[in-house]
């Protein structure tokens, strides 16, 4: 039975000076992700981290670790005392667990502990020979084996593993600062948020609704998306902001063809004001160039001028199909395609302007009490704390 999981770092390894600080951050993110198993111990072992299970279920723990950013790969490992016969025995158990991977294998030894009596070649040859005798249906292949049994000989014991599971990559959440993110109920913005988290950002979510015109289940859908995202980052804030009053004002005073662009400017105005409270330097959106009328280059340009925050658009140059694939992989797709109303589609004009001019948009916006609408929206913000699933 596997007793530990070996965690290998990703890009942290390229960060000379900050490395130890980032390692500590990753360690604490790992501990948070595994909080439901208090018996688990997490500790550093020379440029890697060892998660000791103490009875916690290996598959479930792996599932949580696969969602921790900053991890390159993971291996369930078995421990053996520093004794050749004991190591051979454990190597046989590991090969037994991994033999479904194919019919050829090799043994690879890393000997950090120079006191160990056999050198790495000798130990590999000894264990490999013993395994070949015992597993007569398997062949040794030192060049391209289906299974590599790794033996890591350290001062406190030997660690033996075969499987290498890919991690989530990126940087530990918390490394890169705090930003806002505009989360709709669509396919794109959850993927954009995920990509921002993967770069190490802590994300405060903002969702605009027009209750009672948008439904409660539309809001629950967004909470579900937030919950899935929290599975990757740890608990986060979801700010629910009403646009009902803003939409009424736009409808009353502005040309229909500019409604969408004005609404998006109001989203940015309100997000910027909210960002001052949270201390964001930037916010994230799921815009992707050319997908809809408001996502033409001039559409984005006209909206960006209302904010002095940096706009992060991780998907701006991505293909829709790639975004969909990623949404499926991270677990948001099935929720995103639920057909509930959203504030933009309810409000969309029949013929939105695809090439809005700055001057005409500014002129139209001048008809609105922008400051008053921002203040009213902020006053009614509802903040929900979203925890990751236990
Ligand atoms: P998505 O799939 O993310 O909804 P989309 O392709 O449907 O994107 P739009 O509806 O034009 O494009 O929205 C562009 C971006 O604006 C979204 O990705 C999101 O970041 C933000 N946004 C749109 N509607 C909302 C909303 N109701 N609440 C918060 N942010 C929103
Ligand atoms: Mg949308």
From TrEMBL:
The keyword rRNA-binding does not apply. It catalyses: [ThiS sulfur-carrier protein]-C-terminal Gly-Gly-AMP + S-sulfanyl-L-cysteinyl-[cysteine desulfurase] + AH2 = [ThiS sulfur-carrier protein]-C-terminal-Gly-aminoethanethioate + L-cysteinyl-[cysteine desulfurase] + A + AMP + 2 H(+); [ThiI sulfur-carrier protein]-S-sulfanyl-L-cysteine + a uridine in tRNA + 2 reduced [2Fe-2S]-[ferredoxin] + ATP + H(+) = [ThiI sulfur-carrier protein]-L-cysteine + a 4-thiouridine in tRNA + 2 oxidized [2Fe-2S]-[ferredoxin] + AMP + diphosphate. It is found in: Cytoplasm. ATP binds at residues 182-183, 207-208, 264, 286, 295. Pfam families: ThiI, ThiI_fer, THUMP. GO terms for molecular function: tRNA-uracil-4 sulfurtransferase activity. Its EC number is 2.8.1.4. Keywords: ATP-binding, Cytoplasm, Nucleotide-binding, RNA-binding, Thiamine biosynthesis, Transferase, tRNA-binding. Coiled coil: none annotated. CDD domains: PPase_ThiI (cd01712), THUMP_ThiI (cd11716). Pathway: Cofactor biosynthesis; thiamine diphosphate biosynthesis. Residues 59-164 form the THUMP domain. Its main location: cytoplasm. SMART domains: THUMP (SM00981). Catalyzes the ATP-dependent transfer of a sulfur to tRNA to produce 4-thiouridine in position 8 of tRNAs, which functions as a near-UV photosensor. Also catalyzes the transfer of sulfur to the sulfur carrier protein ThiS, forming ThiS-thiocarboxylate. This is a step in the synthesis of thiazole, in the thiamine biosynthesis pathway. The sulfur is donated as persulfide by IscS. Belongs to the ThiI family. This is Probable tRNA sulfurtransferase. It comes from Alicyclobacillus fodiniaquatilis. The gene is thiI.
